[in-house]
Amino acid sequence: MTSERRSKIEKVLSKRQNDLTVVLENVFDPHNISAVMRSCDAVGIQEIFVLTTKIARHEKWGPRSSSSAAKWLTVHQYTDADECFHNIRQRYDRILTTHLSSDAVSLYDTDLTQRIALVFGNEHAGVSDEIRAMADGNFIIPQVGMIQSLNISVACAVSVYEAFRQKLVKGHYDSQKIQGAEYNTLSNQWGIEHENSL
Amino acid sequence: MTSERRSKIEKVLSKRQNDLTVVLENVFDPHNISAVMRSCDAVGIQEIFVLTTKIARHEKWGPRSSSSAAKWLTVHQYTDADECFHNIRQRYDRILTTHLSSDAVSLYDTDLTQRIALVFGNEHAGVSDEIRAMADGNFIIPQVGMIQSLNISVACAVSVYEAFRQKLVKGHYDSQKIQGAEYNTLSNQWGIEHENSL
């Protein structure tokens, strides 16, 4: 590994945010998932949750994946919603779905700097009632146009970039969040060997 | 036309922003252009500029278009860059390209509430040197990940939604911007007949 590459990896790891994640519920189009992964990587999200209860489990992001963004993310796959949410709640204080309901608040009125998980639903059905019931609330991306639908990769990008903006203002990228064993595990996975690793 | 439909159209027209536009330079993938159009419609952009100097002119968004967002946008197509920019400058004070250059400023440090045109380039080559030379500056979408590339539809959505957020804060959606003959022309195109039209 060149020192330039090592430096790049260390810089990216120093910006990773362990208090923001994305959950995909029964999103079936691999292109959408890849685009979501690229957006997550771009804003420093390290882990995402891919839940498939009504469609086949995705096989694409296994260890031999050729998808480039997947290589730099920790992808948790679940086929059981309870197990998935149990594990999300271990690390995140709040889980919000994107659901067009009367109690949904605007993305721009949502504090995205807390420990938060954002759930995006299936391309056609959106977030299911079951998952919605397990979450803490809903948010919407405001729209003032004739067409009331944004592609999931667009909706996710707009949401995580608003989180990025809020976090930037609050200095979330100024100091390294991932530390110790978690840092060493990741940097080992990314090809950096540690002389003083745990 | 039902009164509900008429009311919807009037509401959307009342939010249309005549001081923000998107310019696509040699973007070739129709899916990307469609996604850009949906994002533009969603934030209230009325007109966009599609410039094709190095690829074939797009035929898809003519009067018989089946593309849904295109129906609600005014799409100006050009094959000559000078003519395109001449017409953009008639209505917009500032033209910014997305170009990874040393003088590029962050999207989040850019005032998107002025009369502004945002230029997005070809999927592979980005914005050309020719177009860059004709613009007033560059902006970048900050990225802190390993993969340094966002799809053009994602980049455009993040940019126009940041404009939406800034405009929302400044009250740009509180009063109707499109008035008089421009309003009547559009609402006629959208199927509303005016008893007192000009």
Describe the fold and architecture:
Two copies of one chain form a homodimer. Chain A is α/β, with parallel strands linked by helices and 198 residues long. Chain A has one domain: Alpha/beta knot. Helix content of chain A is 36%, strand content 16%. Chain A contains six helices and seven strands. Chain A has helices spanning 3-15, 30-43, 81-91, 129-134, 152-169, 180-189, and strands at residues 20-25, 47-51, 74-78, 94-98, 105-106, 116-120, 137-140. Chain A has a seven-stranded parallel sheet with strand order 3-2-1-6-4-7-5, with helices on both faces. In chain A, helix 2 (30-43) links the parallel strand 1 (20-25) and strand 2 (47-51). In chain A, helix 2 runs parallel beside helix 5. The longest helix of chain A has 18 residues, at 152-169. The radius of gyration of chain A is 17 Å and the shape is globular. The two termini of chain A are 21 Å apart. Chains A and B meet through helix 1, helix 2 and helix 5 of A and helix 1, helix 2 and helix 5 of B.
